[in-house]
Amino acid sequence: MKRIFPFYPPLTTSIFAALISLVSAASSYRRGGGFFFRRGGAGQLSPAAPLSATLSPDDQVPTIDVAPLFNEDAAAEERRECVDAIGRACERFGFFNMVNHPIDRELMAALKEEMVAFFAQPKHIKMRIKRNSETSRGWFDDELTKQKMDWKEGLDLGKSNGRWEGSTLDGYNQFTESERFNDLLKAYYGQMERIASKLIEALATHMGVADPSSLAPLFAKHSSLLRLNYFPPCPDCDEYLGVSHHTDGCAITLLLQEVPGLQVWLRDKQQWVDVQPVKDALTVNVGDVMQIWSNDRYPAALHRVQANPSRERYSIPFFFSPQYDAIIAPLPAGQQPRYRPFRWGEFRADRIKGDYVDLGEEAQVDRYRRTEA
């Protein structure tokens, strides 16, 4: 068996058999062969907490015009104001919606059309590219978040060491049977790479890094993931979540969404806030790597996805992550670092395992936090 977790023992068939036994014994529904756990359990974060309807407009996730970042003719002051708005949003919310980005709208529409057609296929066709013990890439309906099954299906693809081909820590890609769909996925991925790189540079500027472009080499052969999510209607939304609360194991996430359901935990209000979709916008959130780079100035956003009783929901997140050998450590000069340095691939390997089966401790970046911090 190929080994896709080089820092730890490989996931074996017996582990996956144990997962099936675990899930079968749990209180669950079955949908098309997938398993879904109830909400309750250790670590569940106030599912009944008040939502954003009780909050003021200032407590809503902001929408930011990012055109100055991508317009070479934009005035320096416009760029500074844009960077400051992004930084402030990441400090408080860890989220913002960005409009006037350079994504091709026709590409977005075509990709969404192919995505809907893909998930509408019979399960036995999607099973041909089911992710497995040799690769974390492909179709799935059994992902875990907080050791609980998500109420969703998904399709994962991405580059490894800067290439679509080959097998590395994340395994290998399993493309769909539609060449048009595959071409659209690659084209969209390429546009996400360029936009995410610009946002990383903007945040480095805001946090005062002497050379904001110095992070670019860490993404030269990045390990970023493009995911397509399908959330079917749920028969009991009081008991089930589309995705349980979590932070993203990446630097930043760029999300395309059209149907409500995404929520972020607003720390200063101790409430869940709806992240409402904005037409033609991309929703951006801070991940674990950016939290460490900023030395906690931009906390990784705790978020979840609510299930919907009658409406289907589709989303496309792009998780922008460094290359496997990148050393992650706080960047701001003149500050006491709150985290010890670590290699990105080590954390990534543990995070992948947590997506499959409850192996005990969930992989979180707090394991690298300095005790004296």
Query: Strand order across the biggest sheet?
Result: 3-4-14-11-16-9-8-5
**Coarse shape:** globular
CATH architecture: Sandwich
Report the count of strand segments. Answer: 18
Integer average pLDDT: 86
Biggest sheet statistics: 8 strands, mixed
Q: What's the name of the CATH homologous superfamily?
A: B-lactam Antibiotic, Isopenicillin N Synthase, Chain
By CATH, the topology is: Jelly Rolls
In terms of DSSP E residues, the strand content is 15-25%
Number of domain modules? 1
Any idea what the radius of gyration is? 20 Å
Distance between the termini: 42 Å
Number of helical runs? 8
Characterize the quaternary organization of these chains: single chain
What is the level 1 CATH name? Answer: Mainly Beta
Q: H/E order of the elements?
A: HEEEHHEHHEEEEHEEEEEEHEEEEH
Uncertain parts: 1-50
Structural class: alpha+beta
Give helix % range. 25-40%
Please provide a written account of the structure.
Belongs to the iron/ascorbate-dependent oxidoreductase family. InterPro entries: DIOX_N (IPR026992), IPNS-like_FE2OG_OXY (IPR044861), IPNS-like_sf (IPR027443), Iron_ascorbate_oxido_reductase (IPR050231), Oxoglu/Fe-dep_dioxygenase_dom (IPR005123). This is Fe2OG dioxygenase domain-containing protein. It comes from Vitrella brassicaformis (strain CCMP3155). Keywords: Iron, Metal-binding, Oxidoreductase. The protein has 373 residues and is of the alpha+beta class. The chain has a single domain (63-368), classed as Sandwich (Jelly Rolls), CATH 2.60.120. Helix content is 27%, strand content 21%. The chain is built from 8 helices and 18 strands. It has an 8-stranded mixed β-sheet. It has a 4-stranded antiparallel β-sheet with strand order 10-15-12-13, with no helix packed on it. Strand 12 and strand 13 form a beta hairpin. Helix 3 crosses helix 6 (179-206) and helix 4 crosses helix 6 (179-206). The chain starts with 12 loop residues before the first helix and ends in a 17-residue tail after the last helix.
